[in-house]
Design goal:
Elements lengths: L2 H12 L4 H7 L3 H4 L5 H4 L2 H11 L4 H12 L9 H4 L7 H15 L5 H9 L1
């Protein structure tokens, strides 16, 4: 969805557009230029980061944003349900995403292993 659609959705559901939140939750799009940006903030851990940044009042808006994108809120960056929606250019993209995740959350995530599991 584009920014305006996310804003309209939260306006209809919550009575507020939450523009800053929607911009922030998609912050990493320009870095990855693909749906791989979703692994950074489009999950439960990302919602907690948005709450840290904008306050508890934005929790529902973050949930709406992510649910509008996927139909559910993934548990974290390596959630197989999330990774099924992600496209990327090669293993170097996953490595870069893992580096960003470590900076954002202070812990490592093995996206390549999680992605390999869903490929079968």
């Amino acid at each position: 969805m584009i920014l305006e659609d996310h804003m309209q959705s939260t306006r209809e559901k919550l009575g507020n557009e939450f523009e800053e939140l929607h911009i922030a939750i998609d912050d990493y799009y320009m870095e990855f230029r693909s749906s791989l940006h979703w692994v950074i903030l489009h999950h439960q851990l990302g919602i907690e980061k948005m709450v840290e940044r904008f306050g508890e009042s934005c929790r529902s808006a973050a949930e709406v944003h992510i649910t509008d994108d996927f139909g559910f809120v993934p548990a974290g960056p390596a959630d197989s349900r999330l990774l099924k929606h992600v496209y990327f250019n090669g293993p170097w993209d996953l490595e870069h995403a893992e580096e960003v995740l470590e900076k954002v959350y202070g812990q490592s995530f093995d996206l390549e292993a999680a992605y390999d599991e869903i490929k079968g």
